[in-house]
Design brief:
three-stranded parallel β-sheet; mainly alpha; 13 helices; 332 residues
């Protein structure tokens, strides 16, 4: 029996999940469990580099976990846990701080971006969090780390740390490979079809837990154009708003652009926009209802994250013990 390769991904519970997250990424994750041994964690320790409202952070962490399960991440097949429940992350994070160079950290683009955004709170955690991220990854000796463009630099830094540490102490860490996930549809904002759907522009963003009537309202207000001749056709260059709606409709119904054009031939946006809204409402309905059911069942949700943390701690501890021995700490 070939052992499955290990994949790990951490997600900050910094906001509510939306349609772009689901169609672009999460929808494909459930299938990964067949191929990989997957670890998904709520990266709550990373979120506090920026000031958080404590009650909101707790709520969002649990909501995000419930939504992942509702989107198809089966806790029986994936290890789902909360980062702060596995103390080895912080412990290895400190060790790796001592094997990460100051120059490397100061070159990280996310540090520069966040420092510019939060000038009144440029804290040490904001500077050193890439070392914690390296610890998040290396504790589980994963083969692959799914990364978007914005995270490539962190995986490169992690690989540098592995090279440095293994160069001194022998073969301690497995070298992780970046895994460029098969992306689903690239979903743009309903009011800003030239930029990706984002929770920061909530009017053009459809959230997974949103009420059906609110979703419909947003689709009815979605930006299109004044083409009355041949309104529903796929032309991203000249009709970005319509192309985005067609993308969404195609992603939730499985219909091709050609089929969509035929379906709405001779009909205006007054028919097309509510039809897309309705298809999205029906796609998200089971997810919303299941997530709400899971959130209401506190005992079940707690059993998931406790079991996840137990399994994660067991694996993480094996790596940490090895590291502590190599650097010369007295065994506990």
């Amino acid at each position: 029996m070939n052992e499955k390769k290990v994949m790990l991904s951490g997600i900050q519970p910094s906001g509510d999940l939306h349609l772009g997250n689901y169609l672009g990424a999460i929808k494909n994750w459930a299938a990964r469990a067949e191929e990989f041994d997957c670890y998904y964690f709520m990266a709550d320790m990373h979120t506090i580099t920026v000031r958080q409202n404590p009650a909101d952070l707790r709520r969002r962490t649990l909501e995000q976990l419930a939504q992942y399960i509702a989107c198809g991440l089966d806790p029986e097949k994936n290890t789902l846990f909360i980062q702060s429940h596995v103390p080895q992350h912080a412990e290895l994070g400190w060790v790796l701080n001592c094997y990460t160079m100051f120059g490397e950290l100061s070159r990280m683009t996310q540090f520069k971006d966040k420092s510019a955004k939060h000038k009144d709170n440029i804290n040490g955690g904001l500077f050193t969090y890439p070392s914690l991220m390296a610890a998040d990854i290396l504790l589980y000796q994963p083969d692959f780390v799914p990364v978007g463009e914005d995270q490539k630099q962190h995986v490169e830094l992690t690989r540098n740390i592995v090279q440095r540490f293994n160069g001194i102490y022998g073969d301690v860490f497995k070298m992780p490979e970046p895994y460029i996930p098969k992306t689903g549809a690239r979903i743009m904002g309903l009011t800003t079809p030239d930029s990706k759907m984002s929770k920061s522009i909530s009017e053009g963003c459809v959230f997974l837990m949103e009420k059906p009537e609110d979703i419909q309202r947003k689709f009815k207000r979605a930006i299109t154009d004044s083409d009355t001749e041949n309104p529903v056709r796929y032309d991203p260059e000249n009709k970005p708003g319509v192309a985005n709606l067609m993308n969404i409709y195609s992603a939730v119904t499985g219909k091709s652009f050609e089929e969509i054009e035929i379906e709405f031939a001779g009909q205006g946006y007054g028919k097309f926009k509510p039809a897309v809204g309705e298809a999205v409402v029906e796609t998200l309905r089971p997810i919303r209802e299941e997530a709400a059911r899971i959130l209401a069942d506190k005992v079940y949700l707690e059993s998931v994250y406790k079991a996840g943390a137990e399994k994660a701690s067991y694996v993480a501890n094996k790596t940490l013990r090895k590291v502590y021995k190599k650097v010369g700490f007295v065994p506990r």
